[in-house]
Structure formats: C-alpha cells, structure tokens
Amino acid sequence: MRCSEEIEKKILLKRKLTEFSFDNMVKHFRSLIFDFPDKRTGSNTRYAIEDAALGAFSVFFTQSPSFLAFQDAMQKAKGESNAQSLFGMQKIPSDNHIRNLLDVVHPSYVFPMFSNIFNGLNASGHLNVFRSFNGNLLCAFDGTQYFSSKTIHCKNCSKKEHKNGTTTYFHTVVTPVIVAPGNNKVIPLQPEFITPQDGHKKQDCENAAAKRWIRQYAPMYKELGITALGDDLYCKQPLCVLMLEEGLDFILVCKPDSHKILYEWLEEFEAMQAMQTVTEKRWTGKTHEIDTYRFLNQLPLRDGDDALEVNWCELITTSPDGKILYKNAFATNFKISKNNVKEIVRDGRTRWKVENENTLKTKGYHLEHNYGHGKKHLSYLLLTLNLLAFLFHTVLEIMDDKYKLIRDNLPTRQTFFDDIRALTRYSYFDSWDAMLTFMIHGLELDVPDTS
Fold first, then answer.
1. What is the phi-psi region of residue 413: left when phi exceeds 0, alpha when psi lies from -120 to 50, beta otherwise?
2. Choosing a second label site near 247 at 20 to 30 A (CA), which of 52, 164, 197, 236?
3. Angstrom distances, CA of residue 369 to CA of 189, 319, 353, 386
4. Is the Cβ–Cβ distance between 144 and 172 less than 8 Å?
5. 143: which strand partners?
6. 170 CB contacts (<8 Å, ≥6 apart)?
7. pLDDT by residue (tens digit) across 195-204?
8. How far is CA 123 from the centre of its chain?
9. How far is the C-alpha of 104 from the C-alpha of 381, rounded, in Å?
C-alpha cells in the first residue's frame, strides 16, 4: 500500500512538473493574451495582438534585441522560424508595430501568470528550499527606476523639477521577489508601479506603492508564511502596521537617522548595561572575523503613545585589528533571543541579494534599460514581460532536467544566452525540447530520461 502511494505521489509530482514546462507556460501566457484590449477598428489587423505580445516576450526570453529580425529573415529564407515553433507566433511584427499595439495593454493582464507559476512551485514542493527563519518565505521589496528622460514623458511619469528650470521624467517600479539565504535563485512576484494615482495630488512614491501591493496580494500569499524584507524606507509605522494587519512578518533595515526615538531608548538601555549581546569568531578561509550581535525587544518605533513596539538587532563585523567591516541594524516583529538573533540578521541581510546580486539587474535582463516608453502603458507592460521572462527561466532551471543539465555544464549564464542567440539565429528547431536536446548532444552529455 505504501509503495503504491509513493508511486502515485511521484506521478502527481511529475504531472505538476509537466504542467510547468516551457510549452505549457507559453500556452498559458497565450490564453491571457486573448483578453488583451485592441485599439484597432475595422479590418486594420495585419498583425494579431497575440503576435505582438509573444514577440515582445520572445525578445526578453532570448535576451536578444535582434531575435525578431533574425526570425523574420529565417522565415523569408526557409519558410519557417523559431518565432513560430518556440513561441507560437503566426506573423512577425516590426518593433514599431509591437509598441503601438501593446501601448494600450495594462500589465495587470499578465499578472495572473506570476501567481499561477508561484502556486505551481508551491504545489510541487519547490518553494520549500526557500523557507527560512520561522519556516517563512522571505519577500524582499525593492524600488527600481527603469526609465529617465528630460524630454520623453507620458501622463504616467513621475517627475522631478530642478532648480535650473528643467524637469526629469522617470518611471519606477517596486519588484517583490522571493529570496533565501544561500540560494542563488529569486522568484519575482507581481510588480507594483509607482504612478500618479486618481484623486491624489501628492506624487506617488515607493512606500505608497508597497502599501498597495500588500493590500492586494498579502491575502493571496500570507497563508504560506511571508516575512517582508526592505530597506530603511519601509521601516515606518504605517507600513509596519499594515504588514501585521495583513498577516505578514517583517525584518527591515532600521537606521539611526530616521529612528531617533528608538535609538534614544537604545542608548538608555546601553547605559544601564541592559543590551543583550552575542559574539562569535568566524574563520573566512583567509582570516578570522568577529561578529557581534546586539539586540533588545519591545522598543517604540516612533514617538507617541500609539507607537508600535518592535524588536531591534544589530550586527557589527570587525577584523582582528578592530576595523569595522560591516554594520547594519534591523527592526522586526519576531521576538529576538540569543538562540535566533543570527538567523534573523541573516534573513534581514538577504535583501541585499536584490540590490547587489540581483540577476534582473546584472545578468542580461537590464531592467533599467528603456525598451520603449509609449503614451499609456507600454513601459509598464514591457517591464512586466521582462520580469516574466526571468521567471520562466527560473522555473525551467528548477523543473526542467535538460535545461538544468545544460546550465550546470556551461561556464556562465552569459554563455548560455550567447548559445541561444546563435542557435536560434542560424538553425530552426521545431520545439524548445528539440533545441535543448541539440545543445546536450553538442556538449556530449547524456540526455536525461524524462519519461
């Protein structure tokens, strides 16, 4: 009986993995495209909006700005193309056609893909490796400016007016991602764009955008256990209270300059020698470093009788000669003890994966590059498709044995995408799986059994 149950579990897991193959993810994306609005009327439909959306996505997925131009040349020469076989496109529109057709499409049409894939990862057990302190998933919030110009702008732009009379127009987005200590993968969730809000005279900001995201999506994810991570900008009482009300935990950077009352309390406790401390000597492989953890519980986040009480911890890392190598502090709703302070600080520091190690910014996705501005929603949608392309590759690296084998046997991520660009430019493949198999044979590896 137990044996048959194990077999059934393996079959169900295999089915879930198959559901999130490249072909099925593209198929699901295509089903969302059918609901995209189309501004055209009458018979002016040379290119389907489905082809425009798939075309834009294919450029981000292959990390090849010239992908569509190469496929158009292949289609004319061979009568077939990888745009058709891999992404299901019928015709290949020009960049201008893509921008014009997609400008009216709000990125929320694409957002269901993020929760669908996230739920698939959870159902197949692949989120377990992302769990950290208290068994929670860490969700790091980060604001990224991805467009800036002194001339090009739209009604959705934020703007900064300079003393010399000029104005800078820009777009910024909050990108929540699931991260984990020691895990080089991150899982992007639905983004939230910083944009003028109806009925608000004050310019939108990162903090307000984070609040909107939490109100909308925390109910969807909170049952899985979520710890929000963020820089000092997020460590404000209204946002912290909202996180708690919506069922989220938090570990947020807490700086002295913006939390003067809290640090005044810390100084008083320190004067009374009431500060809790843990000190450890750590070998880095080259030298010893000393980690000093300090913490206190139940401190007011701000002045006033209604101040939220938070728990505070700090890590100072020094070299043997006493030089400070690292120093940072965090506020959290988790009660801190000598047994857990290291884990809490470790999780708080993991948000640096977003700023300093973020594949989205440093490994070819170029979130801060402007691919097209438009007059309405184009910049939002293209940024979302870029995030979705990154998510597809993350899922494939987790779930596709052939994909993972190739990535493990190529020296760098850049090499992988160089190969993808070269192969799809010069050779036709009737499926994504066929291209992976070709690459595996080229690397003289054994093809994994996927039956």
1. alpha
2. 197
3. 20, 39, 20, 11
4. yes
5. 174
6. 145, 147, 148, 149, 157, 158, 159, 160
7. 877 666 678 8
8. 20
9. 9
pLDDT at residue 336 in the model? 98
The confidence score (pLDDT) of residue 39 equals 80
Distance of alpha carbon 230 from alpha carbon 249, whole angstroms: 12
pLDDT < 70 stretches in the chain: 1-19, 41-44, 198-201, 353-371, 450-451
Contacts of 198 (CB under 8 A, 6+ apart): none
SS3 string, 157-226, reads: CEEEECCCCCEEEEEEEECCEEECCCCCCCEECCCEEECCCCCCCCCCCHHHHHHHHHHHHHHHHHHHCE
- pLDDT value at residue 204: 87
- 276: β partners: 295
Q: What letter does residue 131 receive in the DSSP assignment?
A: B
Dist CA 236 CA 302 (whole Å): 8
Instruction: Please state, in angstroms and rounded to a whole number, the distance separating the CA atoms of residues 435 and 423.
Output: 8
Q: Is 249 helix (H, G, I), strand (E, B) or coil?
A: strand
Which three-class secondary structure state does DSSP give residue 357? coil
At residue 330, φ and ψ (nearest 5 deg) are -140, 150
Q: How many CA atoms lie within 13 A of 161 on its CB side?
A: 2
At which residue do the structure tokens 């910083």 appear? 194
Cα end-to-end span (Å), the chain: 24
Burial readout 269-285 (b: 16 or more C-beta within 10 A, e: otherwise)? eeeeeeeeebeeeeeee
What's the CA gap between 243 and 3, in Å, rounded? Answer: 44
Alpha helices in 34-111 (DSSP H): 49-62, 67-78, 82-87, 95-102
Q: How far apart are CA 89 and CA 83, in angstroms?
A: 6
Give this prediction's pTM. Answer: 0.90
| Angstrom distance (rounded) from CA 373 to CA 386 | 14
CA–CA dist 161, 216 (Å, integer): 32
Measured between alpha carbons, how far is residue 387 from residues 153, 192, 211, 252 in Å? 22, 12, 21, 24
- Sign of the Cα torsion 18, 24, 28, 31 reads negative
Rounded Cα gap, residues 247 and 239, in angstroms: 12
For tokens 């059918």, name the residue. 34
Nearest to 180 by CA among 223, 218, 229: 229
Handedness of CA 251, 224, 108, 43 (dihedral sign): positive
Q: Which pLDDT value is given to residue 330?
A: 98
Express each pLDDT in 240-265 by its tens digit.
999 999 999 999 999 999 999 999 99
Q: Which structure tokens are listed for 53? A: 């959306």
